[in-house]
Amino acid sequence: MTTEPETPLFAPPPLPEQERMVEAILFAATGMVTLAELAARMPHGCDPAAALRGLAERYAGRGVELRRIGEAWAFRTAPDLGFLMQAERVETRKLSRAAIETLAIIAYHQPVTRAEIEEIRGVAVSRGTLDQLLELDWIRFGRRRNTPGRPVTYLVTEAFLDHFGLESARDLPGLAELRAAGLLDSRPGPAGGVPAPGAEGGPDPGEDAPDPDQGALFDD
Amino acid sequence: MTTEPETPLFAPPPLPEQERMVEAILFAATGMVTLAELAARMPHGCDPAAALRGLAERYAGRGVELRRIGEAWAFRTAPDLGFLMQAERVETRKLSRAAIETLAIIAYHQPVTRAEIEEIRGVAVSRGTLDQLLELDWIRFGRRRNTPGRPVTYLVTEAFLDHFGLESARDLPGLAELRAAGLLDSRPGPAGGVPAPGAEGGPDPGEDAPDPDQGALFDD
Amino acid sequence: MTGADAERPPEPEGRDWEDTPLARADRRAAEALIVDVEGFEGPLDLLLALARTHKVDLRRIAVLPLAEQYLAFVEQARAMRIELAADYLVMAAWLAYLKSRLLLPPDPEAEGPTAEEMAAHLAYQLQRLEAMRAAAAQLMARDRLGRDIFARGLPEEVERRRTIRWDASLIDLLRAYARLRTRDEFRPWAFDRGDIHGLDEALERLRGQLAARLGWLPLDAFLPDGWRRGGPRRRSATAATFVAGLELTRQGRAELRQAEPFGLLELRGRAPE
Question: Quick one: DSSP state of residue B209?
Fold first, then answer.
C-alpha cells in the first residue's frame, strides 16, 4: 500500500471531521503544533488551515481559546480566567531588570547584536543575562552581521511569542508608535558622540569591548 | 466579613460563564478534577454540576469529549481519533554527552574527520555515536580528504540547523561570544588563542588541517 | 542650545550651591541620587533619572542643564568620597567637553559633528532608553503563559509502541563545545611557565635590590639576568617588575617616576619611616 498516492484513493474527510481531528491533536498537545505538523498527521488531502478557521470561530469567547503563535497553533485558557488556575501556576525565576530590558531590546530591535544592546542600555551586558534568556528559550542566535568582527545577532523565539501571548513579533505592544517616533531606527551616533559603555567588570575587556565601528552596525 | 455568608453577597456568575470556568479548569488541570474541587475553585454559589452538563452537551461528538471517571472529570480525545495521536507516542530523551560533544565538534569544525573529532574530544568516538547522529539526520558525509587513507569527513545538515534554530553553522557563537553570554566559565590561558585541532601530537598532523574558514569563528 | 544658555553667568570656580533656588533643588536631587548610586545601571541610566526629575517630556529635553546636573552629581560624589566607576567619569569628561562646545560660539573651521548634533544624539539615546523601558514594562504586564494563560495540563500520550526521539537543545550543544574547548586550557599551564617571570619572584627580587641602593634607576636595570634579551621573556619580566614596583610604591618602600607619557620609568628605594 502506498502512503502517498498520486490521486487519493479516498476523498479527504469532510471539513467538520477535519475540524474534529485538528481539535483532538491540538487538545492533546501541551506545546504548539505547526500547520505542517497538522497536515502530516492528518489523512492525505486534508486542509488544516480551513479546519483551523472553523475551530477558531467555534472557540471564540470560550474558556479555552485557539491561539496562533507564529506558524503554529495551540489551545490556551482565556486570559480572564487565569485566577481559577492558581494551582497550575508555575513560579518562574524572577528576571533581573537587566534581563527584562535586554529581552525587550531584542524583541523590538531584532536582529540585534550585543554591541547594539549595550549602546541602547548604555551599559555593558553582564554575564548571565543572555545566558538566562537563552535558557528560557526566549531568544536564539540569528545570522552574523556582515560587519567587522562578524558579530552574532539575537532574535526572539516562538516560545517567547507563546509566553507573552503574541501572534508574531509584529504584534509587540506599541511597536508602530515606537517606529513612527523613530525610536527603533538604526541611528548612528555622531563620531565622538556619547561614550560607549566600557566592558568593565566584563570577563575579558580586551575581547568584549563593543565594536568601535558601532555606527556602521546600524546600517540596515 | 465572613467567607461563607448564608446568603451570597454577590450573585454567582451566569451559567454560560460557569461553563467557561469549568472548561478552563479541566483543560489546564494536570489530572482528573472532582466536582468538589471544581466547586472549591469557582466563585461562591456556582453550580459546577450544571455547568458540566452544559459542557458535556457542547462537546458531544467533537474531537474532544468530556469524560467522567468515578467522581472526577477530564477532557479526553474522542476514541475514534486515537489514530491521530501517534506522534504523541514519542518519548524524548536527551542525547548522550558523547553524542552532543561529537555533534558540537562537527558543527564548529565541519568538514571534520573522525580522527579530528577524537583529537578534540581526547577520547575515541564510537561507531554508534556517529551512526546515531547520522540516523537523526543531523550529520551527513562530506567529501573525502585528499590525504593518506582518504578519510571521510562529516558535516551538519539542514535538519540540524532547523532543529537548533540556526540560520547557518557559521552563525554559531565563537568562544568569545560564548564567554560573553555566560556559557563559558573559565578564562582562556595566557597563550590566549584556542589551539587548532590536531595542532600538536595529533594522530595524523598532515591530514588534520582545520578548515581555514573556521579561524573566523575564533578570531576574537 | 536653548535660550537659557545665554543668561547663564560664566561658571564660577568652586561652584556655590546656594546661589539660586534652582541650584538648591538640584542639590537635593543630587543628594537623593547619591544615596543610591549603587542602584544605577551606568551613566545613561543616571542621566535619564536626572532628566526625569525635571522634565517629563524627554523630547524637549535641554542637554546643557542636564550636563550641568550630571557634572554636579559627579562632583558631589567625589566630595563625599563615593567611588564612581570609570564609566561615570568618562561620561563626565565627555559632558564637560560637550558643555564647553555648547557654550562657545561654533568654530566654522571645526570638523566633525557640531555640539548640537552631539547633544541631539544624547537626547535621542535617552528617549530610546526610556521607550525601551516602557516597552519592557508593557511586555512583562501582558497575560503570560503559566501565570494568566495556561496550556493543556494533561497532554495525552498513547501507551503502545514508543519511539524514542533523541533531543538536545542549542544550549546543550554550546555548553558541550565550551566545555571541550576550555578543558585543555587548564591542563598544561604548570608546565608552560618556563618563560613567565612570576610576580612573587619579582617582588622578592625588587625588594632586595631597592633596599640595597637608593638612587634613581630605569626599570630595565631591575630585570633579572637572562631575561633582558627581547621576546616574551623580557616582556614577562618587565611586566612583573613593573607591577612589583607599583606594589612596593604603594607600600611606601619605593618611589616611581616618569617625566612624560611613555617616557622612561625610573624607580628608587625609599627608606621606611
Answer: P
The ipTM is 0.65
Nearest chain A CA: its distance from C8 CA (Å): 24
- Residue C271 touches partner A, C-beta closer than 8 Å: no
> How far apart are the C-alpha atoms of C153 and B27, rounded to whole Å?
6
Q: Give dist(CA B161, CA B159) in Å, integer.
A: 5
Whether C153 sits inside 8 A of A88 (CB atoms) is yes
A49 interface with B at CB cutoff 8 Å = no
- Selection from B74, B211, A173, A124 nearest residue C140 by Cα: A173
Is the CB of B165 less than 8 angstroms away from the CB of C170? yes
Q: Is the bond into B173 cis (omega within 30 degrees of 0)? A: no
pLDDT band at C188 (very low <50, low <70, confident <90, very high): very low
Q: What are phi and psi of A64, to 5 degrees?
A: -125, 135
Task: Indicate the range of A95-109, A184-198, B102-116 predicted with least confidence.
Answer: A184-198
The full DSSP string for A71-98 is TEEEEEE-GGGGGGGGGG---PPPPPHH
- Residue C205 contacts by C-beta under 8 Å, 6 or more apart in sequence? C222, C224, C241, C244
For chain A, domains (ranges, CATH) are 15-81 (1.10.10.10), 97-218 (1.10.10.10)
Whether B31 sits inside 8 A of C154 (CB atoms) is yes
CB contact under 8 A, A141 and B77: no
Phi, psi of C164 (to 5 degrees): -95, 125
Q: Which residue of A has its CA nearest to B179?
A: A203
Q: What is the pLDDT of residues A57-86, one digit of tens each?
A: 999 999 999 999 988 999 999 999 988 988
C-alpha pair distances (Å), A157 with each of A95, A135, A164: 17, 12, 11
Cis link prior to C224 (omega < 30° from 0)? no
CA distance B182 to C187: 22
Show residues of chain A in contact with C44, CB under 8 Å. Answer: 121-123, 194, 197
What 3-state class would DSSP assign to A168?
coil
